[in-house]
């Protein structure tokens, strides 16, 4: 049975992927959970599996290429799903082939949620929902076409292209407190320590511009655009010389905010507050200057995640490249992070022959084309 997939959902929605089956305008939701490898206790552990009743739950072990497919109802009271050996009652959901047939059986034998794309595309978190609303509110008036990245949950929330130069934005939404002070969190996930999530400041090449939306009726038509170069100069980014900062605090009204206006960050509003109607030329000039700087300095992009390298330098069908890269790293015990594009390019060059041989899972799907794959490998090396 053929399905129509849709993975253009906003980050933070209940489902990760939507599938259309029989119905033309309605979709079923799929939630995907991953674990890198089997635990020391010989169990495959998947976290945050509670609350997906009415969805299809797909669990993936990356190192072993194992996939379990089950109705979300199975884990409705389980924060963590542990799958043991072949005798485990959940091990029976393991599939060896024909994923479509398994999904079809789940759809036919379970009561699943069926609704439109717009209804699925609503973030669960109020903060993320607010960010989405402001993004579309300001996108319509922005002087250049803002695009969403193909890979969500990275440090890039949107981007534009000027003269083939990509300018990347990190979006934040904040409200104005009673004392006219605005506080913006300036950090990102840093993994887990003792099973607790930790955070750290952004690094200099995570994005090019901090795009701030102010949640206030008086500022609905205004935005703040802070170039990363200015944030670096003021020591907000983490690098070898600086620990970085995890918060940006500034006053919106210098008169009302007397307590902090004399001390903290007047430069934010003074230099980078723009009206989307009155200041379009100023916004254009700022972005053009950044694009010219990156072009003239032979700017080397540095990304926190490999998918961003492929998205920026690679072809449209990203998935097979990312899968191939991960498989190569696991096979050769290599670090999956690059410090700059030159390292990325060197990796592709050194493992060119292996990339030709090692077939990704998506090679078995229609969008994968071997000739195009090999052609693009050569393009990546020649850039």
Helical amount: 25-40%
What is the CATH homology-level superfamily of the largest domain? MepB-like
What series of H and E elements makes up the topology?
A: EEEEEEEEHEHHEEEEEEEHEHHEHHHHHH
Which fold name fills CATH's third level, the topology of the largest domain? Trna Endonuclease, Chain: A, domain 1
CATH architecture assignment of the largest domain: 3-Layer(aba) Sandwich
| Rg on CA atoms, Å | 23 Å
Spatial gap, N to C terminus: 41 Å
Largest sheet: 7 strands, mixed
Number of helices: 12
The tally of beta strands, per DSSP, is 18
Runs in which pLDDT lies below 50 for 5 or more consecutive residues are 298-304
Q: In CATH, what is the class of the largest domain?
A: Alpha Beta
Strand content: 15-25%
Q: What is the secondary structure topology, with strand pairs?
A:
Blueprint (H helix, E strand, L loop, with lengths): L3 E3 L10 E4 L5 E10 L8 E4 L8 E6 L4 E6 L8 E4 L10 E2 L3 H11 L5 E2 H4 L5 H14 L18 E5 L2 E10 L6 E5 L1 E7 L2 E6 L7 E6 L7 E6 H6 L13 E5 L6 H4 L5 H6 E3 L4 H17 L9 H8 L4 H15 L8 H10 L1 H6 L12 H13 L1
Parallel strand pairs: 3-5, 11-15
Antiparallel strand pairs: 1-2, 2-3, 3-9, 4-7, 5-6, 6-8, 10-11, 12-17, 13-14, 15-16, 16-18
Helix pairs in contact: 8-9, 10-12
Characterize the structure shown.
- The model is unreliable at 298-304 (pLDDT under 50).
- This protein has twelve helices and 18 strands.
- The chain is of the alpha+beta class.
- The longest helix is centred in the last third of the chain and has 17 residues, at 280-296.
- It has three domains: 4-120, Trna Endonuclease, Chain: A, domain 1 (3-Layer(aba) Sandwich); 126-296, MepB-like (Trna Endonuclease, Chain: A, domain 1), CATH 3.40.1350; 306-382, no CATH class.
- The strands form five sheets. Strands 1, 2, 3, 5, 6, 8 and 9 form a seven-stranded mixed beta sheet that branches. A five-stranded mixed beta sheet has the order 10-11-15-16-18.
- The chain starts with a strand and ends with a helix.
- Helix 8 (306-313) packs across helix 9 (318-332) and helix 10 crosses helix 12 (370-382).
- It is globular, with a radius of gyration of 23 Å.
- It has helices at residues 99-109, 117-120, 126-139, 228-233, 258-261, 267-272, 280-296, 306-313, 318-332, 341-350, 352-357, 370-382; strands at 4-6, 17-20, 26-35, 44-47, 56-61, 66-71, 80-83, 94-95, 115-116, 158-162, 165-174, 181-185, 187-193, 196-201, 209-214, 222-227, 247-251, 273-275.
């Amino acid at each position: 049975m053929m399905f129509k997939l849709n993975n253009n959902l906003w980050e933070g929605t209940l489902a990760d992927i939507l599938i259309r089956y029989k119905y033309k305008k309605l979709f079923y939701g799929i939630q995907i959970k991953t674990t890198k490898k089997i635990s020391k206790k010989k169990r495959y552990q998947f976290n945050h599996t509670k609350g997906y009743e009415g969805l299809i739950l797909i669990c993936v072990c990356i190192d072993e290429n194992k996939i379990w497919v089950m109705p979300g109802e199975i884990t409705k009271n389980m924060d963590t799903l542990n799958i043991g050996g072949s005798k485990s009652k959940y091990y029976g959901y393991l599939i060896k082939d024909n994923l479509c047939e398994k999904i079809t059986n789940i759809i036919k034998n379970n009561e699943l949620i069926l609704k439109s794309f717009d209804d699925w595309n609503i973030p669960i978190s109020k903060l993320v929902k607010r960010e989405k609303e402001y993004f579309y509110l300001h996108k319509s008036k922005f002087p250049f076409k803002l695009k969403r990245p193909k890979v969500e949950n990275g440090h890039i929330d949107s981007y534009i292209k000027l003269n083939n130069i990509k300018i990347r934005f990190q979006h934040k939404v904040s409200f104005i407190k009673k004392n006219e002070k605005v506080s913006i969190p300036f950090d990102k996930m840093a993994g887990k320590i003792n099973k607790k999530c930790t955070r750290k400041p952004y690094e200099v090449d995570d994005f090019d511009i901090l795009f701030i939306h102010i949640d206030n009726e008086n500022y609905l038509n205004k935005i703040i655009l802070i170039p990363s170069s200015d944030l670096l100069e003021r020591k907000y980014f983490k690098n070898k010389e600086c620990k970085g900062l995890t918060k940006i605090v500034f006053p919106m009204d210098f008169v009302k905010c007397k307590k902090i206006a004399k001390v903290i960050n007047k430069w934010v509003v003074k230099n980078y507050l723009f009206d989307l109607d009155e200041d379009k030329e100023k916004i254009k000039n700022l972005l053009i200057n950044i694009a010219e700087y990156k072009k003239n300095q032979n700017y080397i992009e540095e990304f926190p995640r490999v998918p961003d390298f492929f998205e920026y330098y690679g072809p449209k069908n990203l998935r097979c490249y990312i899968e191939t890269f991960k498989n190569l790293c696991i096979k050769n015990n290599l670090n999956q992070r690059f410090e700059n594009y030159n390292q990325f390019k060197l990796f592709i060059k050194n493992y060119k022959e292996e990339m030709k041989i090692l077939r990704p899972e998506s090679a078995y799907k229609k969008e994968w084309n071997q000739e195009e794959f090999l052609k693009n490998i050569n393009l990546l090396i020649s850039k």
